[in-house]
Hints:
Helices cover 56% and strands 8% of the residues. With 569 residues, the protein is an alpha+beta fold. Helix 18 (427-442) packs antiparallel against helix 20 (505-530). The longest helix has 26 residues, at 10-35. It is globular. The termini are far apart.
Amino acid sequence: MASPLAGGDMGVGMMRAMPVMAAFTAIKKDYLDSLEGKEGEEWEKALHECHERAAPKALEIAKANGGIYNKAAQFVSSLQGGAGDHSVPKEFTSVLSELTDHVPPKPLEVIDEVFKEDFGKSATDLFKEFNPEPIAAASLAQVHIGMLHDGTRVAVKVQYPKLRENMAADFSVMETMASQIKPAGFDLSWLVADFKVSLAMELDFISEGKNTNTLRHVLKHRDRVVIPKVLWEFSSRRVLTMELITDMIKCHPPQLLKDNGFNPYEVGKLIASTFAEITLKYGVVHGDPHAGNVYLRKHPTLGGPQLVLLDHGLHHCVDKKTRHKLCDVIVSCLKRDKPRIKKTSEYFAGPLYRYFPLILSPWFIFGASLTAEDVHAAIHRKLPPDVTLEDVGNFLVGLHDHGTNMLGVLHAMGYTRGMLNEIDFPERHRLLAWAEFAVEGLDTDFEVQGAPSTAAQKAEMDKQLVQQAQTAGNKNTDENNESDKAGGSWKPAYPTFDVPTQHSLAVKWHVKCVQAQVYIIWMVLATFERFLPLVKRFPSLINVVNKLNFFVLGIVLFVFPVVLAFLMF
């Protein structure tokens, strides 16, 4: 089956890109004129005002063009966490976050074309009831509430008509520009190619349904997580029908959680542990876990929070070797095993291995010589100040050249960190979850076969789907049929592999030991921050402490205040 984004019309792409270029030129001029001749606080104030003027313009562009522009805006709005406001200004992340689930919707008469083409009947005929007003509209599709003829209420996700043609045209322009424009000397054409492969996967709702089944199976032991069931007989490559889950709320801000009877800390703990487990223990990574795809509801029988995971169009399946290496990096960083940190990080980033732990967490700074500024940055969840744009660019290129799909994994981890930051979830508790599932992941000999992570894997999956559909007697899915009709009486096989959940006492003890290191790192950083003026005056103190055994240091940091309090009182 040909890629849904192949053969884009360059002329259409250029017409859609021209207003974007005009807006970019105007915004750039505003920045240059407004900042010229200013310094210090005056410059900072002017920059903030420029951001406030530019962000709404970027939002309007994304809304007007839709598709790939909305996806790009969603990506920008999620870039929080490790670099703080030094990566993307808060003015942009706040404004563009609207596009996670509030894209301008299409009217029923427009989206009904998809039902007629894929099922041979309109939505109102296919379902007993179909609400013409969508409950959510995102970058690729919108969701309606419907009812089957047996009375079952469902959520129906419908891809926008002409979306594939417009996105193919946009990519034809992007690929041409990427081959000619090399910011800071970097060839980023591979980034556009990877983005195109990822979006092609997201445009295939049969693939999304298989991903959904896989994650439902992997997480079936977690009562506090729910993933909607796919109803295959009412689904196609452009329509995905699922069981309806009601009474959901977003996972932030904290006040919203409190108003609905949830403890923000417990919510953060649930989010952190769930995503740490599927990534580190099972190698299944939700590629798009932004606020529009991760919700909460009250557990129907147990009470308390239950996590609802939606939109499984983009999953990354990490092979066992790579997953073990990632777990090893995390455990080594928490243990401050510098030789091991270097060896495991080199697997991913080669000579730029120093930056790999820092991308995972700013707290992983203890694998190299430190400065007071490094410690201050770590406390505030930022990268060290000496990390330059060139360093980051070289790191990304090196990571891509490694041949794994770690860029997608790191992107997903950044999404999750951004969600946790929104509810002020402490970094130490995120790392406690990582410690648990990194240790268990090293003890788990498990590898999921399913979700495609490359174009070759996607093509193989399409071939298997065609064979399965033909075996079931469905004539709609055919290698030479470009109408994308896939609804009918067949469905992909449900996963049957065993999911390991039990571990030995030795592994459980190892988890507790590694988690203890998290608390010690926290105490060390907090102590440094408390006495930062002294640390800046005597910077050698940092590396003296860094060379000490952290367990001994932890005992000292804990015992000293207790002894001092005893002597005083």
